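Worked example

This section walks through a single chain of length 363. The input is the sequence exactly as stored; nothing has been trimmed or padded.
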Amino acid sequence: MHTTMRRERLSPSVFRLPVRKIRSGWYTDAYFNFAKELLEAEGHHVTVTMQVFQKQHALLGGIDEAIAVLKQCAGRETGSGWERGWDALEVDALYEGDEVEPWEPVMHITGDYSLFAHLETVYLGCMARRTLVMRNVRAVVDATRGRQILFFPARHDHWLVQTGDGWAAHVAGAIGVSTDAQASWWGGRGMGTVPHALIAAYGGDTVLAAEAFSSRFADEMNVVVLVDFENHSVRTAVEVADALGDRLWGVRLDTSETLVDESLADIGGTPPRGVAPALVERVRAELDRAGHERVKIVVSGGFDAERIAAFEDAGVPVDAYGVGSSLLRGQNDFTADVVLVEGKPGAKVGREYRRNPRLEPVS
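Given that input, the structure is written out below as tokens.
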């Protein structure tokens, strides 16, 4: 496995961490705060090596964010204020986007445990969330066999997770994200389509809404128009392409899984519901027949890696997939264990120190 994506680590300033609250233990499981308080009160300054790992084949995300937490928030309160702890730690880690094996250490932290005991909850959470998104996005990217993936899950989760999720999707291979927050860590912008709500605001006239939208934004972005508002995607796609001409980059099919698009009404037996291969094929055929061969087709609505693979196996003429909630599902939990105490084995049974030559020192 072990594909490595070497890059410069992201600057801690990118993350805009709530440093004071993290230092205070506000986001930390209380028992870690109690442990830190006890060690400091007793003057028990023991040097440990903390080993961080997870249990799946995965694409490592959130490691730079975790390092930023350690750099900015390790330390202790003294009578004169916060005493920085990062300089007293030795940290070795893999890189953002590295492929990792189950149980493989992704980071070792060595130093006075009281300096970073309060950070475990936070740095593990960073890696768990971003690695989950990276792994899911990469699975979808691999399933498309080179086609574009648009990262569209923002509406399915809390807005505070958008920045890091967008970065994770970007590293894993998504070609576009839907919000400016998701694109902010690499200086990009969100992208999207003419939405159903805007079409409704123009009286349900997709062409009218698309003309207004493209007149204002065609110079700033690739214009993509949803064409399922009237549930006749073939007719609407051609009408939009005729009206917009070169201003139109693509049409997006998003038919509800509860509906049969009227374009397929003549299919015998039980016609397929939702964005079915037959619907995509008819839209492609009619766009081509009308002279719009260059117009792309984007599909969305319940797509995941398995469904995309089925479309690709069948040769369905899709140019890009918009994928949403499936990219946030599952789990990719990380665990941290003290494995060395004063340089000697000190782990609980079953969690021994494991050397990993792929880890590199973090400055």
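What to look for: The chain has a mean pLDDT of 94.
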